[in-house]
Each structure stands twice: as C-alpha cells, then as structure tokens.
Amino acid sequence: MKRFISIIVSCIISSLMCFSAYAFGFEDEAYDYTSGTVAKSIVYDESSPHYYKIVLTSDGKLDLKVTMDSNVLVKILDEDGEKKDSISVWIDYRTGLAVATMNKSLAKGTYYIGIWNTGSNSGEYKFSATFPSNSTDETAAGAYPAIYLSSGDSIGLGAVVSNTVRDDVTISTSNRRVAKVNSYGYVTAVKKGTAVITIKYGRTSTKLCVVVE
Prior knowledge:
There is one protein chain. The chain has one helix at about 1-25; strands spanning about 30, 35-40, 50-55, 60-70, 70-80, 85-90, 100-105, 110-115, 125-130, 145-150, 155, 170-175, 180, 185-190, 195-200, 205-210. By secondary structure, it is mainly beta. It has 2 domains: about 25-130, Jelly Rolls, CATH 2.60.120.380; about 145-210, Immunoglobulin-like, CATH 2.60.40. A 5-stranded mixed β-sheet has the order 1-3-8-5-6, with no helix packed on it. The longest helix is centred in the first third of the chain and has 23 residues, at about 1-25. It is globular, with a radius of gyration of 21 Å.
C-alpha cells in the first residue's frame, strides 16, 4: 500500500513539474510592453511564438490589436500560463492581412500576450494594446522616438564634438540596468527592458526611448 501511494505521489509531482515548465517557460522570453505599437516579424513555428508581458494595475479592459501578413493566433494567458482568451484569424487575401482584435475584462495582475504565425507568409506584424497601467512618459515605449538594440550593442547619439561633449549638454538614462550612456553620448544596451535617454541642452531637452530585446 505504501509503495502504491508513493508511486501516485511521484506521478503527481512529475505532472506538476511538467505543468510548471509549460506555464512559466515563456516568462524569460517575453518582451515587457507598456504602450505604443510594436512592429516585428515571426516565422511559422508553432513552438516559437512571441510573448508580451503586460501589467494591469487595476481591474479593467484589455484592448489589443494584431495585424499580420499571415494567418495569426493570439492568446491571453495569466501568469500561471492559464488561457484567458484567444482568437484565430485567417488572412484576407483582398488586403493581404489578418487583423485580430480582442477586448477582454481582466482583474488586476500580470498577463502575457502570445502571438503565433499560423500561415505560410513572412509573419510581419504590428501589435498594440491599451489597458489600466501606471506607465509614465519615462517608461512608455510609444511616447518617444525609439531605437531597438540587443544586449551588448552600442550606438552613438551624435552628442560628440571632437570627442569632447559641450559643457552645456548633459545626457542621462532612466534605467542603468537596461541601458547605460556616457558623457559622450554612447549608449550601451545592458539587458532586456526599456529605458529613456534624456539629452539636455540649456533649457531644452530631448528624449529617446531605448528598447533592449
């Protein structure tokens, strides 16, 4: 009897481990999303969707739209991997696009939007969403002109004059853990996330959003 119970317990633990691997396997691959429109492409591969992490700071409506040049599947998952809603749309060959829209009432919490290319085309798509959030201009990817970098990449912002930055120009980053910037205007991507680079010249300032993928 003890042996039988032990076998049952082992099976239950194994099942839970498999479920956890499924539920949380996409967390590290998800892009943090706050606002704006994201344009990307995704190949046809049922095992490799794109995920976007969103955080609702209060109960409310999630409105989202995905436009793709191929058949598209979109799912809303909670942080445990449980499906809250989904929609599958075939391409309209008159327009060459599949347009998936969803309007879902959700409780406060963290959710993941999964996007699959279920057709044979290139999978060029645009994703946008609105939802209750505390996002500010300092963290909203859609608020300023954006550049997309991979971890370790560097780019110059043109704030260098003969390798010496002007005394009345200051450059700063909103999140050094995501993107660093030196006094010469060179930005280095550190890890996945969003940061805003602020360039101040006298009483004038310019902001640029850096999205590290």
